[in-house]
Amino acid sequence: MKRIIEAALQDRPCDLVLKNARIVNVFTDQILEGDIGICGGRIAGIGSMEGKEETDLQGRFVLSGFIDAHLHIESSMVTPQALSPVLLSHGVATAVCDPHEIANACGLPGIRFMLDSAGLSRMDYRFTLPSSVPSCDFEINGAGTLSARDMEPLLAHPRVAGLAEVMRIPDVLSARPGMMEKLALFQSDGLVIDGHAPALSGHHLQAYKAAGIENDHEAMTAEEAIERLQNGFTLFIREGSGARNLEPLLGGLLNAHMPLTRCCFCTDDKHIEDILQEGTIDWCLRKAVSLGCPPVEAVKMATLNPAVHYHLKNKGAIAPGYEADLVVVDDLKDFRIHAVYRTGQPVTEPAAGPAVTGQLEDTVHLPAFTAQDLEQALRKDQVIGLVDHELYTLNLPASSLTADDLASCSYVCAMERYGKTGEYACGLLKGFNLKGGALAASYGHDSHNIIAAGDSFEDLALAIHKLEEIHGGYVLVRDGRIAATLPLEIGGVMSREDAQTVADAALRMKKLARDMGVPEGVDPFATLSFLSLPVIPEIRITPQGLYDVKKRRFLDRD
Ligand SMILES: [Fe+2]
């Protein structure tokens, strides 16, 4: 404390001074010219400063380190440690993460692994604890149910910022005791409660807010965005790999002259190859300014607004006492990153080494089955219809399709993989179009059982058996042979490898899938992984069978 006061008074030199900066001040909407003095990892002062070390920024703009307001690290397929250098290189110094996927696969040991891996990272990861494990009562996951009592010991952890996306909306609206216990526990601790309210509106949305839920990242239209702001939610504007909501939401808010003080950027689910190619929150900034958003307003959505929302003290701004997480950019249009500082040190973090995870690497335990068994399990009267660029699916009676359409369908299989029930189900899938093989994954939202699709039961069986051998991940079979694998050994959802290795493998497999016929409007990985999530209409497949989401029942159980 004494050192930073003396450095601020200029009675002693700062550790580092960034000279000749144009500093974006998010409190006054000004761009100030001067030096930034850093001492002990914090900003000591701004103006004319002297330091033991000095770097001339030659008039470049300096922003506070970006904050991703909501992110599932597992969707990148790499560990927190491996993701850290990648996010930092794009200016993201802090991310609020929901370890929902590993929690479904591995429970508390999975969450603890994420906390430990975060602790080995240069980035500042904060966590919200998964509220909805499993996402539906009937789901079979690796972890079973995560209760308020299970989570309580983790509340005091310094990285825990709140309760993660409350997606079991019926439990909230019916004031179900298990959910009420979770909400009360986190409220009493003054932590933030995250929302997840797709298509919710009117009195249902208000009841959801009245329960204490504070933000939402599922708005898809400007009307939904405005209704959320009107009701006091903080609006998270999402730009992930699949869901791209920034243009409709921000465009609509700008048109309606809405204040943006309660808006933040988030990525939610973004694959590592997309992060490496286009960026994350820096991508949001570029896109926002291209839509006509004033640059300083855009910067606030990437810095101050999420810091205020999550009570992240001394983050999100460049002012005395604030953490010296700084991003140096060439301009406020393209936000091309010149340098990143984390707690006052330039970021030159090398790629992370392999993560050590022990018992989390043995989670794929399949029942005995053959290709003939899968064929016998096939349900032919109902078809899952894919919709281009959407996670939404159509519930199509087979009788409504032509013989050609039916013949072009893929077989899709969901199989329990934790050695619990050994159940599996097979159905027909229209629009995936993978020909001459099969693609299988242990990454299947939210319970992360096996999900696979292809045009022959032999190839499906081969791909699924290979998944067990590699302890989870993705397997592509072509012409009766294993054509590519992407092992995700950690809980069957994350790789031990570094980001570039995983991205290269993912891109190679996606290209193969495209060569085999998967059309442009279908993401081979994302589409497959959401086919088993029984909360997105109209129809899903889980190990128990085809599930009608609108009627909330399995088709077999009419
Ligand atoms: Fe999410």
UniProtKB/TrEMBL annotation:
Domain Amidohydrolase-related: 61-347
Domain spans labelled Adenine deaminase C-terminal: 406-552
Domain of life: Bacteria
EC id: 3.5.4.2
Cofactor dependence: Mn(2+)
Reactions the enzyme catalyzes: adenine + H2O + H(+) = hypoxanthine + NH4(+)
The entry's keywords: Hydrolase, Manganese
Enzyme superclass (EC): hydrolase
Membrane-spanning segments: none
MF-aspect GO terms: adenine deaminase activity
Protein name: Adenine deaminase
Family per record: Belongs to the metallo-dependent hydrolases superfamily. Adenine deaminase family.
InterPro entries xref list: Adenine_deam (IPR006679), Adenine_deam_C (IPR026912), Amidohydro-rel (IPR006680), Metal-dep_hydrolase_composite (IPR011059), Metal_Hydrolase (IPR032466)
Gene Ontology BP, a term: adenine catabolic process
